[in-house]
User: Fold these one by one.
Assistant:
Number 1:
Amino acid sequence: MVFALIMMVVAGLFIGATASLMSNRAMQASYLDVAMKRRIAMENSKAFNQQFMLERTFNVGNTVLPLQTGRFDNDWGGVNTGSGWTNLRAFASTSLPGTLATVYPYNYTGLRPSGSYLITQKTTRPSVLTEVDAFTAYSFLKTFTPGLGGDPLVVYRKPANAPDQIELADKGAGLSLKVNGRAVIRDPDSFFAPSTANPFELPIRVKSLYIQKHSATRKLFCKESVDGEDIPPSNLAASRSTNGPTPSTVTAADLYDGTLNVIDNDSNPDNSLWHFMAREKAAGTGDYVTITSKAATGISTDPWHIVSYKTSDAPAVQPLFPPPSYPRGYGATYHVLTINLDHPSLPHLRIHGVIDQIVLMGQTGAALASAATLPPVMITMVPNGASPNDFINLQCVNENNRRMVVGVQDNRQTTLDVYWNGSSASPTSINWRMVLINENRTIWANLPSSITKKVIITGGVMTNWSFKRRGNGSADRLTLTPDNNPEPAGASGPRFSSLLPRDGWMENYFLPTPP
Amino acid sequence: MNVTRPFSSLRRAGYTLIEVVATAAVIAVGMSGAASLSGTMMAQEDLSWRVAVARNYQENIARLWQLGLSPNETMALIPSASGNPLLSEVVGASPTLTPTGQVNEDLMGVMEAAVCSFTINTANVAGAGAGGTNQITIYRPTLR
């Protein structure tokens, strides 16, 4: 009897414990709905923050009022603007992570190689959403010049009036160039004509490849620069990137469509070479000159001068670097603008398309090393209104170590031939320091005739149209490499990076508030 | 010599039939109660398991869609109940992911919205009994 009673007590305890456990399990199951809704609401809020920030923060001078609340129906998430912001200008930021007063526990480098200028803004959980956990969503608005940050080749969306596809090599001509860093493709569609094979191999050699968006029917790949193996894109998915608004920007999506407009963009003066020049002049940190006339002026020791050649005088009197077939087909006179890049008083230049040829005179010997500390210079070569652009020939003479950004632009896809001449310190390479920005021109890089001689462009190329080369040999005969020392010791003038157009992107750090 | 057995020793000799029957009845009632409770608990635990699987399944659909996949891509990635005995026990009706268009709540951002529905099977036979349907509303940015 006693045994039976003990057994009953034990069984009772067991049943009681099991009932209690099952009861808790049932309660836990009943809370699953609530817990899932809280998690989904957080994810919805995170997505809301991203959309809200991307729609506003890279526009020019935008203002957001404080304590504005956006809230999904039935409390499925929302954001609050917190303290808001006034006249936010992401592309005008000069704050570097190391100079920020507030230290955030985040990755200062982020999605792109190297550091960047940045601004932080944040949203929070609306206080009325008591069924959603509290959070703070930090948005790091980063901007930097690709060529200073490990991306020496960036190919943007092709111009709206472009007739066909972007080319990085002549059809059937093999390799075009080597990228000593990351190649960035903003708009893969710009490489595809209806007959283009899918996938399409870019005729370049790279260390890594970054593609802004992906399409199953328009895939891009290329080969690695060391071993020649196929290299897939290094990013999935990509973060949205922009140069800022342009005159064609209507919707928020337009802002991130991969357009390049940084040479003369009234819609975003914070990211436009043309406007940088005005800014520097107003600040007293650098003057500029606008060249709208092809009339001869100046002498060879000036920072720049123009010489007009009568084509009828050739070959007795002709340009130092005559273009192909000169003088046939070049009109009565041929106008040459020579720019002395080692001249310490060289102003920034706005050159209209009235000049036939521009000669960039570099440096040799001791002047080559010392040119690194000269003030950086901006040169824009823009069309002459709606007229056809006369400027079709660019000569790079000797080597260049001066920090320089050159922006060439046209309203159609006029060809621009670039040549390298003169002497170089090494018999096998020409080092040419330059950030080249190409808007709507077909650029041909004509390599030296010696197949053992390379051209190395330090600073890189930002282009929205074809950039090709003439000259046999391996890909590295034309090498693009980042400028890893844009602010050398003893450099004079403003910071080089402050004179360069930037790409902007956002990185989000969504932090639930600890209980 | 008369030897008389004490009365008490006679009483210790055993239980009466009534006592035994009563005790057996009490134990029987207890055992049947325990068995019934156990059955209910098992059913409750089974339902809890189904709810847990269903919510996990539903949340995964939501997260995949929020990552940027289309509804078809999302549903293709999610395990199907077809040929999956365990999942078949949970799914009462095929889960759905239905985009509901764009919203611009308080003019603060154009978002894509969708509704994900899941109906739990409440019967012992796979897919035979449709219980309550749970709907969640999910959003993702149009800029992504």
Number 2:
Amino acid sequence: MSKKILIVDDDPGVTYTVKHGLEGLEEGFKVTSAESGGKCLELLQSEDIPDLILLDIMMPQMSGWETYNKIKENLVWKDIPIVFLTARKDQVAKNAGGFFGEDYIEKPFRIPELKQRINKILEK
Amino acid sequence: MHINFSISLKLTLLVVTISAIVIFSLTYVNIQQQSEFFEDAYYEKAFSLTKALDASIQNPDYLNDKQNVQNYIENFTSLNPDILKLSVNIPKENILYIFASTDVDSIDKPSGAYNDLSYEEGAVIYIPDHGENAHRLTMLAPMNLSGNIFGTYEMILSMDAAYNALDTQMRNLILISAISLFAMIFSFLYVLRRAIVKPIIIFRDATKVIGEGNLNKKIDIKSHDELGDLANAFNNMTTDLKNSRTKIEKYNKTLEKLLSQKDEFIGQLGHDLKNPLTPLIGLLPIITEQEKDPKLKEHLQLLTSNAEYMKELIFKTLQLAKLRSSNIQFDIQQLNLKNEIDVVLNRQQPLLKENMIHVENMVNEEILVQADKLRLEELLNNLVSNAVKYTPNENGTIIIDAVKDKHLITVSVKDNGIGMTKEQINRVFDEFYRADKSMHERDSTGLGLSIAKRIVEKHGGKIWVDSTGKGKGTTFYFSLKSGYGKNN
């Protein structure tokens, strides 16, 4: 059974990379993408609940942190593991005391590395 | 207050010495002149006394009455208290005998030391004698009566009265000299203090205040002399300095602002570059792997390594910009240096193996340093990679050691690689500088050592490099504050 991943990032290059990088690998990932926090919440309501969400932090309108809060507030979604994607490692570290995802990955990343992180979290 | 003491003391000593020399040499010359004057005066006196005796005796017939002559000279002596002894010597068979004398016991005896005197020639002899406690003048003069010489007078005069007076005078003179010497010293010190020492103290205090950064300090000396001029010049200088400092501070602020804007810009640009780099880093290796056409595969490999290099460059630049910013925070803790080095060497193991380089960690297990763990690892990492880069594959050796000196640990990373020229040593920590320009750019960003330097300096330490020349290996040193374990 393929793992369902939701990637949320306003940069289409990043979502494309994650989608094609992960789906191209033999284990089989099913990747859906959203270009904003709002779109992410919409997708969560209309589609199947993903196994894991990759969430960009710096997005216009609704930031990654806000989206994270909205997801965690929802009783149905709150257990979905969330991995932050960020270009600024220091921002994650700064907020680590407040709220923190399961993990974070710094851009740019290699696909095998991303896959390894995702598998590690999904195994738990 | 030592400056005050020192100048006064030196000048006072000088003045005292010169005054003492002048006063005492004048006194000495005075004594010499006075003594000569006294001797001459007493000679004159003795001579005139003998002439007075001649004039009183006048008639040679008186010499027949010995008692009368004796009475006469005794009487003469009592009238002249300076005369200690007076004798009249008359020859008998060419030897002078004492005919009459105030020294009664010597009468009729030969006249002693002076009996060989040829009295007939009428010689006058006088012998001054300055004994320990007495000053005397012995006078031998002819007895000339009615144009014929009948014998001699021997007269001893005491010069004590005159010399005692001279002593008293001398004592007074010395007393007055001493008093004037003291008065001179005190007035000299007073003038010195007012005119020189006090202004110097004012200058010194002002310099101190200005040195501490208060450029508003002015010197208030209004005297119309060199010191007044100096004070004016000093005040002008302070004003100029103040103006320059204000200008420099203004420029500095602008520069700081520009620098922080630059770092902000670098930060923003760097982070923004990471997004478009994601597809390159993420997808290029996958495509390269899947590509079957060897020519195309080679092209893709080149693209991949370029993308990797670009990523490295961005990360290093961001790191450097961050290390430059003033609000960067370090998590300083006590670290065991040997362990930290082992961690870094383990991580570098693949690179070391690939280059067949032997590394020795000779650091004493007990050495502790105060450092931020991640930054220290980054620093060691950069130094080891650098050493690997410039060390030949065969027989390459890197030795890491550390010495402790009081509160400082100096770490050395020594390789037996290609070494460095003086020019390279001077520039090795410059950003984007590469010692070997022929080296392919993708092997090095030229930022590793700049980052190392920043890390060390942000820890309050120093980093430097030493090489005996091309082909003779290179040693990098850096210093860190020592930790304080149980043993120290």
